[in-house]
Amino acid sequence: MSDMTHSSTTTVRAERSATASKTYAAFLILGLVLLIVAPAFFYPIFLMKLLCFALFACAFNLLLGYTGLLSFGHATFFGGAAYFSAHVVKEWGFPPELGVLTGVAGAAVLGLIMGFFAIRRQGIYFAMITLALSQMFFFFCLQAEFTKGEDGIQSVPRGHLFGFIDLNSSTNMYYFVLAVFVIGLVIIWRFINSPFGMILRSIRENEQRAISLGYSVARYKLGAFVMSAALAGLAGGTKALVFQFATLTDVAWQMSGEVILMTLLGGIGTLIGPIFGAGLVVTLQNYLATSQFPVTIITGIVFMVCVLVFRRGIIGEFYASRLGRKLGFEHRR
Amino acid sequence: MTMIFGIPLQAFLGQLLIGLINGSFYALLSLGLAVIFGLLRVINFAHGVQYMLGAFAAMLMLQYFGINYWFALILSPLVVGLFGAVIERFLLSRLYKLDHLYGLLFTFGLALTLEGTFRYLYGASGQPYAVPAQLAGGTNLGFMFLPIYRGWVVVVSLLACIGTWLLIEKTKLGSYLRAATENPVLVQAFGVNVPVLLTFTYALGAGLAAFAGVLAAPVYQVSPLMGSNIIIVVFAVVVVGGMGSIMGAILTGYMLGIAEGLTKVFYPEASNIVIFVIMAIVLLLRPAGLFGRDA
Q1: Quick one: pLDDT band at residue A156, thresholds 50, 70, 90?
Q2: B280 at interface of A, judged by CB pairs closer than 8 A
């Protein structure tokens, strides 16, 4: 870009992003209203499952979309947190809010350990290391005492939030999950728009340059990894309370694959894309759950199609479409 | 009874043999992964599924056409290799210009679809495949009882590994492959058809995986899940070895198989995870891997 055109494009961009943020705000309010009234129209358990997975996918996207690191081991944080929350709530009698927070803390610690090893390599090796370490955690959960092996931790009590809101009512539970979801998203939004988030994006774009500018890239990557793990733990801990159990399914490698698919389908590197991706995948699973047909055939095909022809994902394509550009959105790549 | 480190010698050698057999499969699979990665820069997540397809092809050939083990050992890798060539030619080759991660994700989707399809058709449980009559039974070596088939697996996979190494390091075709790994554009300018070379390489890797699958069929049960169970371990093997060297991949495969077998003797609870632990230790001490050149 030459200097002559630079100032004019900047103004156009500024105007565009002003329109974009207005449209964005309108959509957000609309979305929130829809989520608040949704239990009147849909089965609450389904909605809660959807919100948990949407938060999980957004947390994952923090790493893939904004730092450029593909983790193939996020099931560890999601499922690990589910185990921790379920255990402290059931065995130690923790209240639900503390139970979820324990899950978050546990996931953050696991994230610190896995991240410490994984950031030593880049790209494809990073993906393989996270996958291998999460498989190790899977075997740990299979053999450990507190996870109850193949059975998992069953009939976890939901308890009373802050001591007086009865979460056994599914309406109360739904609004608790919605609150967790919104808090999680606000944290992610604050995080990616902070100076820290900007540095992460610069690492994604050009790691060598970020290093030469004096940033300790490894530390930032580790920070992003722990943050993403903790938020995935928030989703996992909440899910354990919703379904009242924690099992091996949530720590298996298939779960790590699922969250990648959700993010890819919705749009890597868009804030709200993974929500749509999660919505589609969860709906699909619900739809196929009653039939004999295995879900993995469909998810595998969707995966291949996305990678071959639909790499921007739903929201990414929307941003890049004529309507999206008219509304003032921009999409890289 | 002879004891070694407080363990009966028989048990020790038995586990060592199982370790050696697992190591053979790790070596064959990580070799294929390394060959594919070297040229295509794609981590082939479908490698485990291609191993499973090899075993299934052998079993189905026997069931429907009465094709015996010996022919299956040749035909099955050819069929799976051809299948790999088609996938590479029409789908995978579209992704080379993109970030390498897309290749990983594409092959992951392929693996999910194929595994799901076979699970749908044949159920999740394993089916037996008989040891060929010529290799049935065992022999008493004096200090231990050796099932002949297991000895055969170790010898043949070692030969296959050495053969592949010779193919890549010592033949003209291999020199093209190595040159194309270094600089594909220049090799193409010299008149070598690089896209065909890429297709061939992927087919070779897939064929090697299928070969390992046929070898494995009589040892383990033929099950749709056999691929995903082994591929993650093989990824760890590849991280330990580093994908820069073919010989490195082979050696690491055998070493880790043996390490796993020995762990079963001394501390069985950890045998599932010992390879991952070794991977973590190697990452701390030598992040590029034991034989790795590229970090």
Answers
A1: confident
A2: yes
Over 90: is that where the pLDDT of A187 sits? Answer: yes
Q: CB-CB: which of B102, B113, B239 is closest to A132?
A: B239
Strands B7-8 and B138-140, how do they pair?
unpaired
Q: How many Cβ contacts (< 8 angstroms) between chains A and B?
A: 116
What is the C-alpha to C-alpha distance for residues A282 and A333, in angstroms, rounded to an integer? 28
pLDDT digits (tens, 9 = 90+) for A235-245: 999 999 999 88
Per-residue DSSP letter, A153: B
CA A69 to chain B, closest CA, distance in angstroms equals 10
CA distances from A46 to A42, A100, A212, A282, B79 (A): 7, 20, 48, 8, 44
Q: List the structure tokens of B46.
A: 């479908």
Short-list A292, A2, A118, CA closest to B280: A118
Using alpha carbons, select from A109, A141, A147, A142 the residue that is nearest to residue A233: A109
Q: Where are the alpha helices (DSSP H) in chain A?
A: 3-37, 44-67, 75-90, 96-118, 123-143, 170-192, 195-205, 207-212, 217-243, 253-266, 273-289, 295-309, 313-320, 322-326
Q: Does A299 touch chain B (CB under 8 A)?
A: yes
- Provide the Cα torsion A150, A155, A161, A162; round to 10°: -80
**Does the predicted model carry a pTM greater than 0.90?**
no
Distance between alpha carbon B7 and the CA centroid of its chain, in Å?
31
Q: Identify the residue whose tokens are 């579209």.
A: B94
What does CATH list as the number for A23-326?
1.10.3470
Chain A residues 23-82 with a CB less than 8 Å from chain B: 70
Which tens digit of pLDDT belongs to each residue from B139-192?
A: 777 777 788 888 899 999 999 999 999 998 899 998 998 888 888 889 889 988
Phi, psi of B147 (to 5 degrees): -65, 130
Put simply, whether B118 touches A (Cβ < 8 Å) is no
> Inter-axis angle of helices A170-192 and A3-37, to 10 degrees?
170
